[in-house]
Every structure is written in structure tokens, then in C-alpha cells.
Amino acid sequence: MDFDRNDIMENAGDRGALQFLMSDSSSSSSSDSSSASSGSDNFELFDSSNASEEENEDEEMVQMFAAYEEVLFGAPQARVEQYLEVVREKTDEQFRKHFRLHRHVAYELIDELDASGFIPNHPGGKEKKSAELSFLMFLWFVSKDSTHIDAAEMFGCGETTVFRIVRRVTEWILTIMPEHVIWPQGPNIQQTEEEFFLKAQVPKCIGAIDGSHIGIERPEFYGAVYWCRKEKYSILLQAVVDARMLFTNLHCGDPGSYHDIRMLRRSELYAAAERQLGDLFPDKTFLLGDKGYVGVGKKWIVTPFKDYGNLSAEQSDFNTRVSVTRVLVEQAFGILKARFRYLRCTMRLRDVHFAARLVVACCVLHNICIRSQDLGQDLRDEEEDSDDENDNDDGNEGPDSDSSDSDDDNEEGNRTLAVFKKMYPRAPDPANRRRCAVNADN
Predict the structure, then answer these.
(1) How far apart are CA 99 and CA 105, in angstroms?
(2) How wide is the angle at C-alpha 49 spanned by C-alphas 46 and 50, nearest 5°?
(3) Where are the domains of the chain?
(4) How many Cα atoms within 13 Å fall on the side-chain side of residue 352?
(5) Residue range 221-280, pLDDT digits in tens
(6) Residues 6 or more apart in contact with residue 306 via CB below 8 angstroms
């Protein structure tokens, strides 16, 4: 039977159908959201508390009305099998171009997803989407500047189906995160030190830290705080990488207006370092940060010297070596966004909590690709006019940094000096040079 939209809207008295869809949407939504948390100390999300709950309620309402329209006016013709056949016939090169992962890696993950129990297989109701279709739909979605509508048209299903599948696969990826996002421990610490040392001879470094903006639509609640210096709404991704550009710690979801130091102090990494410094950073190891972290005041972060125009040749060389080593985290962000192009643009999501989870899921896939020797540099080279690198370094310490004008009156400054003196034992003491410059100015 054909329905006329105007007739339906004018005679919208079928409350029973609407109530049925509301209860059905509610039950399916709760089952989809009941997935396990990642359980990893190397990942946390900024929690927007009540605002996030209200945003989730809005998403459920959108799903409900979309489902109502689908029942009344008919779903698109299913062409799933035809699409999968086309995908299977593509060459490996074509597959990676479209889905951004090597075929064998994607299908290994599809097998894991299929065995995980995240894909419903109970009888009854509509035909269930396979693990293969679900994972390929997820990859297609995050690999492009796309919308749920685009994916629905591509895969011949409803928008709510896309919405549900993307969330379901995201939650599954987060459950395997502890296997793939790993802080260096035991023998891996020395190996990580050596790999970083080969970059520019900076000793004792076990990670590079930085932040990156991920564009989002204006959240309905507290939207102003998400407006960032790049003149867009964004959430922040803080990441630590090792010398192979593998993410070893992630913190995601803070508003885009926050500065690097404020985000760091809100993270579980910061809290863990305060509780168990020797476990995370044994034998005086540390992270390298850019000038955005100057003033954080912690001996487990080494930053460049501030340039007042009086740096010695050794200090300038030190800053260069720090930059050459630390740039790995910026390169990792660039590869992440080149592979998953949805992160490069404005994510069409108003649910900040889910947006952060989706970003972290992409970071997990990034690590899986790197470990399979798919470094992604060729994907990054394809992107033009990129502004991914140096994404959160504007040279400002910001109102939240509480930084000092001196590099040698806090733990961080002392550690920077200690590393400098180890690298340049015959160089003049930078602290004395700084004091002389201040006295000359006065």
C-alpha cells in the first residue's frame, strides 16, 4: 500500500504505532549501549555528565522518528549482497583505497568481530547485518567525509541501521583496545628509549605527547566552551606515541577551548603519574612535549627552552633535537586523519561522548595498521593542504598553564636542565645564562 505523506501528517492519530516504535527503539538502544568498557588505563573520556545524557536522549528521539518514517514510507531497496560481491571482487589495492586498511587486516578483524557476540544472531525480526557488512560499513563511514545518510544510500539500509552499526562496531573496538594501546613496560621501556634515541640522540625519552583538535557540530549544551582558536567547534585528543608512532596513551573529549596543560591535568595519565611516578617513568625516563607544555611543572615532561633571543648554540641545538624527536606525535595525528578522513572534517555528531569514543576507536585501528606494517605515509601524502601537524601548538601558554617565566624553578625545568647537561656536558649552565639576561634587562 502507498502512503501519502500529507495525509499521514494531517491524520496523525496512529499513536499506537508511534508508541510501539518508541518502545522498540528504546529497547534496542539500551541493548546496543550495554557493551563492555575498554578496561584500559591508557584511555579515558571527558564526561560531560548531564549534558551527555540529554544529548543521548536527543539521539534516541531522532532514531525513533527516522524509524517511524521508514515504516510509513518504506525503506530503500536492499542491495547489500550486490555491494559485498563488488567489494570482494576489488583488488587489494582498490580495497585499501576505499576502506583504508589492507584487506587481510580488515578480514582478520571481521572474524574477531563475528566471534565477539556483538553482532546479533538471534532469529526473528529483520534480516541481521553480518559482521562483514557491519565492519565494512564502519570503515566506509570513518574513511570519508560522510553522513549517516550517505552510508545508508551506499549500503541500501536505513539511517538508523547505519547509526546503530557504527556505534556497535565502535564499542567492540574499544573492548579490544587493551590489546593494542599499550604503555611501555619491562624490556619494552629500554627498547623504546633506544628507538627514540636513534631519532636525534635525546636520551631517556619513552614518548612524545601532544593534543589535536577534532571538529564537531556545535553541541546543544555548553556549546561555547567547545569553540576553539581554529574558529570551529572541537573536542581534543591528547595522545602519547612511541618511536614507531603507536599510540600508548589516549585521553579524548575535552572541549576545544582547553589548553594543552589544562587537558593534561584533567587526564588519567597525569593522575597516574602523581600516584605511581616510578612505575610509569622508571629510571628518570620522560615524555617530550612542545612549548605548549612549558610550565606544567612535572619532571616527567621535558620541553624546549624558551627563546628570549639569547639561547646558546647548544640550547638551540637541544631545541632542534627535541623538535625532531617530538614531531613523531604530530606525524601520527597526520596519518590518523589521512587514514580516517572523517576526523579531518567536522564530525556530524552532537553527542560529544560518542564522538570521543569514535575517535579513540580510530586510534586503536591506527595501531593495528602500524603493527601490520601499514604505516600509512602514502595515505598522508595523498592529502593536500593539511593542517593536521602542529594542530594544537599555537605558541601560547594560555590562561590555564600557570607557567613560570623561568625554566629552572620547577621540576620540569630542572629535568630539562638535567637532560641538557647530560647531552652537552661542556656547555655553559643555561640557568646562569638566563639570570644574566634578566639582570641585563633590568
Answers:
(1) 11
(2) 150
(3) 181-441
(4) 28
(5) 899 999 999 999 999 999 999 999 999 999 999 999 999 999 999 999 999 999 999 999
(6) 291, 294, 407
